[in-house]
């Protein structure tokens, strides 16, 4: 089921759809006599590419996700008291991916999302020194996060690594076994936070959200940039669609209400 989900989502991502339309159109043009159909397929591919590369559209898709939970600012006392929570004992960081290539620096082995999340988690941990840093990832990713955290000044005894999970649902299950009923702050990408919160709450947990890795741009120094195609906008569009698809999948699987 885990692999099936990855394959299905990969096929319906905007970049994949764009490629399928373009490839199909070219095959129809060169291998059949249905020139009009080929042109239509290629046109769809080009339209999808243009739309997904527009910053104003990618920002519109991301903003509802990233704005659902505000950033965690200090002091955190009012936030905790306002939610009738006790002081957190854990800072939980959900990993976003890891490259096992040993020939590149440790910092380069983590995908950008993981680095943002880890830095935010370490920052919060240092603001709340009585907490422990719980790093949730696969075996290699978890160990990589642990080493990088130590290199960035976190004490070894303050780090706990969860190495068994493969996705957010499994992270929630394994994290619950570690934290039990202890209150904790959860750090993940702002776009991923709504889905993560619903998954954790579904199994009876109530994390304090600390979103990081924000991408949606609400303020442009030059308004022209909102309508200028860019590779960054393509990334943001893919990220937003991935989260919306993940939410739908979570509902189908019963992991989200």
Summarize the structure.
By secondary structure, this protein is of the alpha/beta class. Helices cover 54% and strands 10% of the residues. Helix 2 runs antiparallel to helix 3.
Number of DSSP E strands: 5
Could you name the ranges where pLDDT drops below 50 across 5 or more consecutive residues? Answer: none
Strand arrangement across the biggest beta sheet: 3-2-1-4-5
Q: What would the principal axes of the Cα set say about the shape?
A: elongated
CATH topology of the largest domain: Rossmann fold
**Share in β-strands:** 5-15%
Mind describing the biggest β-sheet? Answer: 5 strands, parallel
CATH class of the largest domain: Alpha Beta
Total individual domains: 2
Class by helix and strand content? alpha/beta
Secondary-structure blueprint of this entry?
Blueprint: H1 2-12, H2 14-31, H3 35-52, H4 55-66, H5 77-82, E1 90-94, H6 112-127, E2 132-136, H7 139-151, E3 159-162, H8 168-179, E4 184-189, H9 193-202, E5 208-212, H10 231-253
Parallel strand pairs: 1-2, 1-4, 2-3, 4-5
Helix pairs in contact: 2-3, 4-10
Any overview of this molecule?
Helix 2 packs antiparallel against helix 3 and helix 4 packs across helix 10 (231-253). This protein is 54% helix and 10% strand. The chain contains 10 helices and 5 strands, in the order H-H-H-H-H-E-H-E-H-E-H-E-H-E-H. The chain folds into 2 domains: 2-65 and 228-253, no CATH class; 71-212, Rossmann fold, CATH 3.40.50. The chain is elongated. A 5-stranded parallel sheet has the order 3-2-1-4-5, sandwiched between helices. The protein has helices at residues 2-12, 14-31, 35-52, 55-66, 77-82, 112-127, 139-151, 168-179, 193-202, 231-253; strands at residues 90-94, 132-136, 159-162, 184-189, 208-212. By secondary structure, the protein is of the alpha/beta class.
């Amino acid at each position: 089921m885990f692999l099936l989900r990855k394959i299905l989502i990969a096929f319906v991502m905007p970049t994949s759809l764009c490629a399928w339309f373009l490839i199909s159109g070219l095959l129809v043009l060169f291998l059949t006599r249905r020139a009009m159909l080929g042109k239509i397929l290629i046109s769809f591919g080009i339209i999808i590419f243009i739309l997904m590369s527009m910053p104003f559209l990618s920002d519109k898709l991301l903003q509802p996700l990233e704005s659902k939970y505000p950033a965690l600012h200090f002091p955190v006392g009012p936030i905790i008291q306002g939610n009738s929570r006790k002081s957190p004992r854990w800072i939980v960081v959900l990993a976003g991916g890891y490259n096992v290539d040993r020939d590149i620096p440790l910092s380069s082995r983590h995908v950008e999302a993981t680095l943002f999340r880890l830095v935010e988690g370490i920052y919060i941990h240092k603001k709340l020194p009585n907490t422990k840093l719980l790093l949730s990832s696969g075996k290699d990713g978890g160990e990589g996060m642990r080493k990088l955290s130590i290199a960035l000044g976190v004490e070894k005894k303050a780090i706990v690594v969860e190495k068994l999970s493969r996705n957010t649902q499994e992270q929630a299950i394994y994290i619950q076994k570690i934290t039990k009923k202890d209150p904790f702050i959860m750090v993940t990408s702002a776009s991923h936070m709504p889905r993560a919160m619903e998954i954790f709450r579904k199994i009876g947990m109530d994390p304090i959200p600390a979103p990081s890795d924000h991408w949606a741009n609400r303020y442009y120094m030059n308004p022209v940039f909102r309508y200028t195609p860019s590779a960054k906008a393509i990334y943001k569009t893919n990220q937003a669609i991935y989260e919306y698809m993940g939410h739908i999948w979570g509902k189908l699987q019963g992991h989200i209400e």
